[in-house]
Each structure stands twice: as C-alpha cells, then as structure tokens.
TrEMBL record:
The keyword Membrane applies. The chain crosses the membrane at residues 29-48, 68-88, 94-115, 158-183, 203-224, 236-257, 277-297. It is found in: Membrane. Keywords: Membrane, Transmembrane, Transmembrane helix. Pfam families: Solute_trans_a. InterPro entries: Ostalpha/TMEM184C. GO terms for cellular component: membrane. It comes from the Eukaryota. It is a multi-pass membrane protein. It comes from Amphiprion ocellaris (Clown anemonefish). This is Organic solute transporter subunit alpha.
Length: 326
C-alpha cells in the first residue's frame, strides 16, 4: 500500500526546496512579473524607510529617535527578509529568524516609546506613581476582570520592562539554537513527535510572546488617553497588525501546509509552497504598512505637557468659566 501511494506522488514533492537558480527555470511569464513586482515593493519599502531614518535622525532628539527608527523599521525589514526568502527558498528558515528576532526587539521598543512619549521613566513615575493601573488586559488576562488594580511604582515599571525585554533576548537565543539544530537536521517543523525539538521550542516561544505582549498592553491601556494627540492609537494598531500578520498568519499557513491543505506544486513541496505564499503575502502587506507608518512617524515630535501644566491649564479654564458665569 505504501509503495503504491509513493508511486502516485511526484518525487519533487518529497524533496528539499529548490536552489534559487533552479527556481528561476520553473517561472513562467506571470511568475517573473509577480517576482519583479514584489521585489519592487520590498525595495521601495526599504528605500522609504532609509529616507525616513535620515529625517528622524535630524528632526527628533535622542533617545526617542532610536526608538522610532526601530519601531518604524519592522515592516520594511520583514518585507526585505520575505523578499530574500522568496528568491532563495532554502533560506526561509534564516530569513524568518531574522524577521522574528527584529520584531521581538520592536515589542520592547513599543513599551519604551510609550514611556518616552510621557517624558521618560522619571517623568512617567512622577506622573503615575501610586496611580492604580488596570492589569486585566490582553493577551493574558483580558477575561480576568476581577484582578485588582496595581499601583504604579519604580519596581512595577521595572517588571513591565523586564517582561517585554525577556522576549527580545530569549527569542533571539532560541532562534539561533533552532537554526543550528536545523542545519544538522534536528529541527523540522513537520516533526510533531514528542522527541522532536520543534514541538518543545515553538510552544515555549509562544508563551514568551504572550508574556511580553502583556506589559505593553498594560501600559498602553492605562496611558493611551493622554497620547491621543500623538496618534498613539493608530501606531499601536499598526504594531498589532504586524504582529498578527508576521506571527499568526505565518503559523496558520504553515499548519495548512503540514496538513496538506496547500497542495504540492513541483518543484515546491507542500511545506515549501506554503512558505512561498507566506513570503509573497508578507511583502504586499508590509509594503502597505510601511506607507501608513511613514505617515504616522515621519514628523517632528513635541514634548507632552507635564501633569502640573495640565492642572494649571485646567485651573485657568475653571477661573474663566466662573468669571463668565458671574
């Protein structure tokens, strides 16, 4: 039975992804046009980002400019790595590792940006010290509405930063280990046996991801009302969209490929074809996000008024209201 089944399967469906030169031989006119268009999109994304880096470096003060450069670079970096993975199918493991490691740092940088937009750690603690923070937010505890509010303190802020930073460090370490194991044939996404390394590393990375997103969500949910003038909500939405597209979408496509839902198309196996579709979709999506982020981030930043300044303005407004009523 097994021999007859193997006889009906194209041998190319059981092989490794083709080399870049071999892949070009299988492309027809439509395929070449598609590759050219996607390469153009990723190149434009990278060029726009580099120009934006020069602008931010000149117009925004340190250390906020480095944070903005990191965050706004998520989409073009992922698009560039996806373009490399599209042209070189055998390098998908390495390009995905580079994209995921970069975005792991972006998660931490988003938290830092929220704090910096409020004046930095010292001004943040001066404004919110002792203020109860709601911690029943996603992705960990969005349903746990009974959780008590925790007062903000220096120790609390330190724990939030550590919670986001651990993902940037451990994700990079585990990604490097995964690539080393992959080069030696010990890491295979299709190997779902209990003895496989992928079945242990990937769920652990998932736990790290959730625990790193929670501190960022806590700070955002408790401070976004003060940062609406800085377009913090659409910025956070773009960050969340990149997270969903680069992590969740890729995982779903990989599962469909492993299940055989995505059919084999020689010279690409089912898994390689799923990776190829993921790379191509990622380039188009990140190109659009790059354009949106350019509109959101390419502008000078003004310092947010302090709490004392807000109170003074409110006092003047109340005095004017009382005088007019008299």
């Amino acid at each position: 039975m097994e021999e007859s089944l193997n006889g009906t399967i194209d041998p190319a469906c059981l092989q490794e992804p083709p080399l870049a030169a071999d892949m070009l031989k299988y492309l027809d006119t439509f395929g070449l046009c598609l590759y050219a268009m996607l390469t153009f999109m990723s190149s434009v994304s990278l060029l726009l980002y580099l120009e934006q880096c020069v602008y931010i470096y000149k117009k925004v003060s340190y250390p906020k400019k480095t944070t903005i450069i990191w965050i706004s670079g998520a989409a073009p970096v992922i698009a560039t790595m996806a373009c490399f993975g599209m042209w070189i199918p055998r390098a998908v493991m390495i390009t995905d590792m580079a994209s995921n490691c970069y975005f792991a740092v972006v998660v931490y940088k988003v938290l830092i940006l929220l704090v910096q937009e409020l004046g930095g750690s010292s001004a943040f603690l001066e404004r919110f010290s002792g203020t109860p923070f709601k911690i029943s937010t996603g992705p960990c505890c969005c349903c746990c509405v009974c959780l008590p509010r925790v007062p903000m303190s220096r120790g609390m802020l330190f724990l939030l930063k550590i919670g986001a930073l651990q993902y940037a460090i451990l994700k990079t370490v585990l990604s490097v280990i995964s690539v080393i194991l992959w080069t030696n044939g010990y890491f295979d996404l299709s190997d779902l046996e209990i003895t496989g390394t992928a079945i242990w590393i990937n769920p652990f990375i998932g736990v790290l991801t959730i625990t790193s997103l929670w501190p960022v969500a806590i700070v955002f949910m408790n401070t976004n009302s003060l940062l609406r003038s800085l377009n913090i909500i659409p910025k956070y939405a773009m960050y969340q969209l990149i997270l969903v597209l680069s992590q969740l979408q890729t995982s779903i496509i990989n599962i469909l490929a492993l299940d055989g839902t995505i059919a084999c198309a020689p010279p690409l196996s089912s898994q390689a074809r799923g990776s190829m579709l993921s790379q191509q979709m990622m380039i188009m999506e990140m190109f659009i996000i790059t354009l949106v982020n350019r509109f959101l981030y390419r502008r000078p930043y003004d310092t947010l008024p302090s709490e004392t300044h807000d109170n003074n303005l409110n006092g003047k407004f109340n005095k004017k209201s009382n005088f007019s009523s008299i």
